[in-house]
Amino acid sequence: MTGGEVPDGVDAGRLAVARSALVRKRAEEVAAAWPLLAASIGHGFIASFAEWAAARPPYGSLRDGWDLAEVTWRYDGRSTPKRRRLPALRRIPGGLVIQLAGHVLHH
Q1: Residue 96 host element (H or E)
Q2: I need a labelling partner for 4 at 20 to 30 A (CA). Which of 16, 51, 54, 69 fits?
Q3: What phi, psi does 9 have (nearest 5°)?
Q4: How far apart are CA 58 and CA 66, in angstroms?
Q5: Which pTM value belongs to this model?
Q6: What letter would DSSP give residue 100?
Q7: Half-sphere exposure of 57 (CA within 13 A, CB side)
Q8: Which DSSP state fits 86?
Q9: What pLDDT tens digit does each residue of the chain (107 aa) get?
């Protein structure tokens, strides 16, 4: 469910809390699959992801991250997304992010 009207008999407040928890879980899964993407967005990753994902159904962390990266990093979207296994380096505002052996370091 990606939004819409609250069904009759459902507490709107509790539904909002459940939606928020599910979006946070989805964002955390995407951040685990795409650590450089999460690091490049920074501390506001979950809020940015929630805004982006508000009207999009989940397709799994790999695809969700790929689709967000297309918007965020301007990927061409033609090649198949794969987890990065080699070291990666990316400049971010105020520093540098290094991904090595599955770990992300901020400098």
Answers
A1: strand 95-100
A2: 69
A3: 85, 0
A4: 12
A5: 0.64
A6: E
A7: 3
A8: S
A9: 456 788 889 998 998 899 899 999 999 999 999 888 888 888 889 999 998 898 789 999 988 988 888 777 655 566 655 555 566 777 777 777 776 666 666 66
